[in-house]
Every structure is written in C-alpha cells, then in structure tokens.
C-alpha cells in the first residue's frame, strides 16, 4: 500500500514510470541512452494494440521520437491514430510477403487478437475466450514497411503478434535491416495454461548476431552485438 502511494505521488509529479507490461520501455530507454548513445531512437511497433496501455513505445513517443505503429484491429487503429498523431499508424497486418490478404481474428480480450487461426481457436477452446469477428486485411512484410516509412532501419522493433512472432522475425532481411534493439514476446501458454518460453526465437536471433540484453520472462530484449561490445551487455 505504501509503495502504491509513493508510485502514485511520483506519477502525479513526474508522469508514469513505465507504460509497458514489465518495464521493458524503461529498460530499453536506459540501453539506448547509456550504451547506444541515442536520445531519440526511432521505432516500429508491430501489434501496437493501444496508444499507452501495455505499450513498449509510448515512452519514446512522449519524447518525440519518430515511430510507426502497425495495428490490424480497425477500432484500435483509429484510437491509436487519434491519441498518437505524430506516429504513422498503419491498419494492416504484417506477413511474410506483400500483396496477399489474410483473416484477422478479433477476440473478446483484444490483447489476444491474432492472424493465426490455430491460436484463435486455442484461445476460444481453452482460455474462456470468444472469436467476436473475423476481418480480412491486407498484409505487408516488415521489409516493405521499413522501406516505405523509414529513411534508415528503425532503431527499435517491438513485436507482439500472438503466435506469429517467430515467422515474422525470420522474414526480416537482417543483412539489409538491422535494428539496434528488438523486443519480442517470448512466452506462450499451453492448453492447460502452463507457461513455456519460446526458445526458438532467442536461438534464431542469437544466430543472427543479437545478444539477450534483458528478459522480463514475458518479453525478451535483444541488442545487435555489432554495435555494442560484449563488455557492456547485461543479461
């Protein structure tokens, strides 16, 4: 109770400490400022969901960084565009290739919206969820989004797409586009609600010369080892 009062007093005077689920935005801000020497990192937020709630990028938006948010849900897209007018907000899905369309499953709990039919059905059958509607949306690849909306590769990619994170990561051209930092959800839940870390994501990024800088159990933050000496990296 005392802790909550202190936090509330601090937020009234200085603003929220973090908007992300487990403080990922504060961790990344520290990383960019103290190690990567970037005061205003650009960002690509894939699966933005909400302008502020559980947002890995709103803290950077507040500091007037350049950003692009991708949100397939039309209602959430409209709300994000209204609340974050400086951002470029795209009402599309992210896929492995361009010029295709795919079904987007809008769930009762909007944080679980997904393009994965298997994930949507699993949520509905085992997580007390409901598929409220299915929308057909165009898909763009990460490479196309970066090419169209960034002069250079974004400094940060935040990725949370419910079941398709690994597929999207493997579609990125890491020879051409190397974000300094990648924040991606690396936890999933089985049908009996058992938690499991998605080790294949970490293995793939490590193979592509990224290090694990921090892990909040829900999300893992990776940093490009080519721009940060190993002596500076924390685990």
Characterise the protein shown here.
- The protein is built from 8 helices and 12 strands.
- It is an alpha/beta fold and 235 residues long.
- It has a single domain, classed as Vaccinia Virus protein VP39 (Rossmann fold).
- α7 runs parallel beside α8.
- The longest helix has 13 residues.
- The two termini are 31 Å apart.
Characteristics:
8 helices, 7-stranded mixed β-sheet, 3-stranded mixed β-sheet, alpha/beta, globular, about 240 residues, Rossmann fold
Please outline what is shown here.
Helices cover 31% and strands 25% of the residues. It has 235 residues and is α/β, with parallel strands linked by helices. It has one domain (19-232): Rossmann fold (3-Layer(aba) Sandwich), CATH 3.40.50.
The end-to-end distance, rounded to whole angstroms, is 31 Å
Order of helices and strands: HHEHEHEEEHEHEHEEEHEE
How many helices? The count is: 8
Mean pLDDT: 88
Find the count of extended strands (DSSP E, 2+ residues): 12
CATH architecture type: 3-Layer(aba) Sandwich
As residue ranges, the low-confidence spans are none
Helix content: 25-40%
CATH class: Alpha Beta
Shape: globular
How much beta, percentage-wise? 15-25%
Largest sheet: 7 strands, mixed
Structural class: alpha/beta
Looking at CATH, the homologous superfamily is Vaccinia Virus protein VP39
Overall structural domain count: 1
Question: What is the gyration radius calculated from CA atoms?
Answer: 18 Å
CATH overall fold name: Rossmann fold
Q: Give the strand order of the largest sheet, numbering strands 1, 2, ... along the chain.
A: 3-2-1-7-8-12-11
């Amino acid at each position: 109770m005392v802790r909550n009062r202190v936090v509330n007093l601090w937020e009234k005077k200085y603003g929220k400490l973090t908007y992300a689920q487990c403080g990922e935005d504060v961790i990344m801000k520290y990383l960019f400022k103290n190690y990567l020497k970037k005061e205003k990192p650009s960002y690509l937020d894939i699966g933005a969901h909400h302008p502020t709630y559980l947002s890995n990028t709103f803290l950077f938006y507040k500091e007037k960084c350049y950003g692009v948010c991708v949100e397939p849900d039309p209602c959430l897209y409209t709300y994000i565009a209204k609340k974050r007018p400086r951002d470029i907000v795209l009402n599309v899905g992210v896929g492995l290739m361009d010029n295709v369309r795919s079904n987007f499953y809008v769930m009762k709990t909007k944080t679980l919206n997904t393009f994965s039919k298997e994930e949507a059905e699993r949520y509905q059958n085992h997580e007390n969820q409901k598929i409220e509607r299915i929308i057909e949306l165009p898909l763009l690849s990460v490479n196309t989004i970066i090419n169209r909306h960034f002069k250079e590769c974004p400094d940060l990619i935040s990725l949370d797409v419910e079941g398709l994170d690994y597929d999207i990561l493997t579609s990125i051209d890491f020879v051409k586009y190397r974000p300094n930092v990648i924040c991606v959800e690396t936890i999933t839940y089985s049908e009996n609600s058992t938690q499991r870390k998605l080790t294949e994501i970490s293995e793939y990024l490590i193979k592509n010369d990224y290090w694990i800088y921090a892990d909040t159990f829900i999300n893992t933050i990776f940093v490009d080892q080519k721009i940060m000496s190993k002596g500076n990296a924390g685990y």
